[in-house]
Amino acid sequence: MWIECVPNFSEGRRLDVMQAIAEAAASAGARVLGMEGDYDHNRSVLTLAGETATVEEAVLRAAFVAVSQIDLRRHVGTHPRMGAIDVIPFIPLEGTSMADAVQAAQRVGERLGRELGLPVYLYEHAATIPQRRNLADVRRGEFEGLAARMSSDVPDYGPSSPHPSAGAVAVGARRPLIAFNVFLNTTDIQVAQAVAKAVRNSSGGLAGVKALAMDTVSQGQVQVSLNLVDYPKTSLPRAVEMVRQEAQQYGVSVARTELVGLMPVQALLDTARYYLQQPDLTLERILEWQLMEQLDDAGRVDKP
Amino acid sequence: MWIECVPNFSEGRRLDVMQAIAEAAASAGARVLGMEGDYDHNRSVLTLAGETATVEEAVLRAAFVAVSQIDLRRHVGTHPRMGAIDVIPFIPLEGTSMADAVQAAQRVGERLGRELGLPVYLYEHAATIPQRRNLADVRRGEFEGLAARMSSDVPDYGPSSPHPSAGAVAVGARRPLIAFNVFLNTTDIQVAQAVAKAVRNSSGGLAGVKALAMDTVSQGQVQVSLNLVDYPKTSLPRAVEMVRQEAQQYGVSVARTELVGLMPVQALLDTARYYLQQPDLTLERILEWQLMEQLDDAGRVDKP
């Protein structure tokens, strides 16, 4: 019964704080699969996996550190955010169901409200009202708009007013997604905005694609930040190529791309299939993949 | 002490023979990771892994079937070949060395000569003379030229004349390689020949790349058949893109590509790095990869 959890924190610059958050999670016995910060977003993504109860405890401990170390009143970054620990998605792994993930979100939400005094909004599969299914709607107005909005928008757990320094948190259950940034060879944010608008589904683009333009000044390039929420249908390479194509009409090329957190091996395979023009390539043709399965069948533990 | 072995058989059309070969190998307890046939090449590639002694026995059993079922006097195909079981490379896996692979080649070579009456040439890391390091040199003249050539070129094991129906076999030890076919949108074999010549290292192309033009008539397209023998240096996407670039001067595009046998996960990663413009992508960013390592650390056996 393993579950994945990918909490996002509003800290991508102070490495000591990010490390303390990851260590707090690890101290509960959860597996830390990754902790990556982004300077411009001023945000970090922690990837956890383990037994459901262990992961829940790990998120709580990480949240304690975040609430004590991060002050949203002084937070500046390009990524929308409303809390020190901004969003906590639970993702079912093999052996757990979406219902399990929803229950984990409910238990963690209740504890965050009671133990940390954080207002908690359940979102996506854990949402209690339809208007909270979409994370972007839950976060609208961000930290600065919380006080005004909460008077009429009572959270699922915790107080009915924002935590003074840590804001509020969205806790939810969702399918796995790919978070991916594409840097464009221009400093003109309007190009990134036009590309994001063309690519994202809500304004006419690709199904399962969310996109935001980011003014990533420290890099000398603007960024289109993508979420692929249905990558089995709209694959990573297809989204990247649509960004490339849309940017081209402004004479702008793709400088590089960047993965946020982890991605499923399916995305690696989709990318090879697409660019190598080999639509029938499968993981069964990958030596180490086969060996791991075979060695496992034989009761061995050595992995290549 | 696991080893990989990738014997090639001169049969890519009769599925029952290919299946009998794979079953013979499996009957010895070796893990069959793949068995793929190619109609035009009239050739198949069996991928085995297991304990060294088990894999050696498996190859012997597969060779018995091949020698009894395949008659080179009636074999037609585009791929160079000199034997029913044409080439037997042993490849060290983690925990085995190239010296172990050479010894496996020697033991199997000795038994193929003694038990099946096959002339055996040791090649590459197992070669006993420098002229036999390169497989293409060992196979020069193919099956039809064997009798004339063997009078002066005494094999390492077995008789000094060809097996009447099964020819001779090259047995060796080598590093892993990627065998890969690129189909071009033309029926003009001269285009494939020009591209192969430009790409292969022996005539001035990329380091670690071997290439042959193949008249793959059944597909309505010609083929450039590649071996990447040093893919950590000359990666799969780089070789594919050089083929694409060279074909373009003749107005010819890449129709599709095809993997022969298995490829290392490194090639999947190299492909994603190259086309996604993300040179620092690592396997640590792939969810299932991390989970397998983490689950393994925890002493679990479930794999995603």
TrEMBL record, chains A, B:
InterPro entries found in the cross-reference section: Formiminotransferase_C (IPR013802), Formiminotransferase_C_sf (IPR037070), Formiminotransferase_cat (IPR004227), Formiminotransferase_N (IPR012886), Formiminotransferase_N_sf (IPR037064), FormiminoTrfase_cat_dom_sf (IPR022384), FTCD (IPR051623)
Presence of the UniProt keyword Cytoplasm in the record: yes
Residue ranges of every copy of the Formiminotransferase N-terminal subdomain domain listed in the record: 1-175
Domain Formiminotransferase C-terminal subdomain: 176-290
Keywords, in A-Z order: Cytoplasm, Folate-binding, Histidine metabolism, Transferase
Cell compartment(s), UniProt: Cytoplasm
EC number: 2.1.2.5
Pathway: Amino-acid degradation; L-histidine degradation into L-glutamate; L-glutamate from N-formimidoyl-L-glutamate (transferase route): step 1/1
Main location: cytoplasm
First-level EC class: transferase
UniProt-listed SMART domains: FTCD (SM01221), FTCD_N (SM01222)
Key word Transferase present: yes
Name this polypeptide is given: glutamate formimidoyltransferase
Organism of provenance: Sulfobacillus thermotolerans
Organism ancestry: Bacteria, Bacillati, Bacillota, Clostridia, Eubacteriales
